[in-house]
Amino acid sequence: MELTVLGQSQTTAPEAGGCASSGCGSNDDQLNHLPEHIRAKVHNHPCYSEEAHHHYARMHVAVAPACNIQCHYCNRKYDCSNESRPGVVSELLTPDQAVKKVMTVAANIPQMTVLGIAGPGDPLANPERTFDTFRQLTEKAPDIKLCVSTNGLALPELVDELCQHNIDHVTMTINCVDPDIGAQIYPWIFWKNRRVYGRKGAEILIKQQQKGLQMLVDRGILVKVNSVMIPGVNDKHLEEVSKAVKAKGAFLHNVMPLIAEAEHGTFYGVMGQRGPTHDELQELQDACSGDMNMMRHCRQCRADAVGMLGEDRGDEFTMDKIEAVDVDYAAAMVKRAEVHAAIEATLAAKQQKKNETFISLSSLSIPKKESRPVLMAIATSGGGIINQHFGHAREFLIYEANAHDVRFISHRKTDLYCSGDDTCGDGESVLQKTINALKGCEVVLCSKIGYEPWGMLEEAGIMPNGEHAMEAIEDAVAAVYKEMGEKGLLDKKPETKQRATA
Ligand SMILES: C[S@@+](CC[C@H](N)C(=O)[O-])C[C@H]1O[C@@H](n2cnc3c(N)ncnc32)[C@H](O)[C@@H]1O
Ligand code: SF4
Ligand code: SF4
């Protein structure tokens, strides 16, 4: 089966230089040449494969409270159960509790393939708790892949122990390779039993990160590098970071937007540091993609997230609900294997159909002047198909179509306007906020939509479309683009009527 990883092509082995075509970003390009052992590691990992994230789930367990550095954007003390952002958790777990939770979730959500430890602090600043969890899971649930997300400071000394577990993937957050920029992001690190401040601390951190990255690559671990895009601080620098980590052998780069709100109590939040706009983020991801595989579907999950990316079923599996549950994991593994086989069959059939029937946009003979890119927002609850009511969508996947290609570029979160509460206290309806969040999109594809949002979308210059319900997303996007071409709507981008939004 051919795979799409991260919505773009990996046409050479990652060791051999990654994405072959400059600026590649096509969902239609395939991973034909990826070596089998790499394909085996990414095909069912929802974060490493854009395609897989429509079908497979992940979970995080919050066993790692402490951190050995301070980032200006992180405050793990703030918790809101409705909030989905990194570092946030509802309950800290012991390793035993975490193992119990993972096995219960695995038995109930068989499409869950990956368990990550991503905080709320740094897993490698809590090595006993992290490795105890991994040791038990490697033994008791060998069909679950294990992952960590680390700042990398303690990585070199722990890399060998890490590799003893069922680990194929590691995420490292690298926001800079220049200590002067690092000094603006990290006020201090904790190193050899003392705090090291400013540039000096950043310099040590960067060295450790680069050393740890090399050690992981040498051991055959796939490394995803997370970078937080902080406008005015490291935004101009991240292309260089991308090149540097690519040169060392990192497999993916995940440039994520800074989340900074004053009420989180972070330095950046309090100082009014803004995050990037959708356009700024996409521009940077595109600029980095010439030389690197980019992850564009990261949902910046909580440190206790459970379920498909974009959903959080953590509330169903709190310790008070699962403590008494007995899991027959041998039986669960059989069921899990069946479910995984069914997903693989679905993916293979989808690929087959795509190979046979995908509308080749390049064959449409759309005149060049009419081949401008068009953004479309998709309401989906998973499976890679258009299967969600507009009013039920908590997020929209954003695809870009042009005359040659359809590609996934991002997702945008929205408040659920069908929640009964139609205003957000600032006088603006949630529906209006949703429409603002779709700024730049010209079409919304969903399974159904009510009269009121239909009218308001049209008024905002966004075409609602419910005609492609239950169709594969990329097929539908291509078909709508073709229709737009036939109706002469590709001549010129219409004036946007939406209000500005970040
Ligand atoms: C909470 S951290 C935990 C793992 C580890 N300590 C690390 O930093 O990689 C997980 C990811 O969330 C990111 N993160 C934390 N707070 C953030 C924020 N306010 N905005 C954007 N990303 C954030 C971190 O940079 C990291 O990539
Ligand atoms: S390294 Fe991770 S946990 Fe530590 S302060 Fe930074 S974001 Fe927070
Ligand atoms: S934070 Fe991003 S990389 Fe981590 S599990 Fe969520 S989607 Fe995957």
Automatic annotation (TrEMBL):
Gene3D superfamilies: Aldolase class I (3.20.20.70), Dinitrogenase iron-molybdenum cofactor biosynthesis domain (3.30.420.130). Pathway: Cofactor biosynthesis; Fe-Mo cofactor biosynthesis. Residues 1-22 are annotated as: Disordered. Residues 53-304 form the Radical SAM core domain. Keywords: 4Fe-4S, Iron, Iron-sulfur, Lyase, Metal-binding, Nitrogen fixation, S-adenosyl-L-methionine. One of its GO terms (molecular function) is 4 iron, 4 sulfur cluster binding. Residues 1-13 have a biased composition (Polar residues). Its cofactor is [4Fe-4S] cluster. InterPro entries: Aldolase_TIM, Di-Nase_FeMo-co_biosynth, DiNase_FeMo-co_biosyn_sf, MoaA_NifB_PqqE_Fe-S-bd_CS, Nase_CF_NifB, NifB_C, rSAM, rSAM_sf. The keyword Ligase does not apply. Belongs to the radical SAM superfamily. NifB family. Involved in the biosynthesis of the iron-molybdenum cofactor (FeMo-co or M-cluster) found in the dinitrogenase enzyme of the nitrogenase complex in nitrogen-fixing microorganisms. NifB catalyzes the crucial step of radical SAM-dependent carbide insertion that occurs concomitant with the insertion of a 9th sulfur and the rearrangement/coupling of two [4Fe-4S] clusters into a [8Fe-9S-C] cluster, the precursor to the M-cluster. This is FeMo cofactor biosynthesis protein NifB.
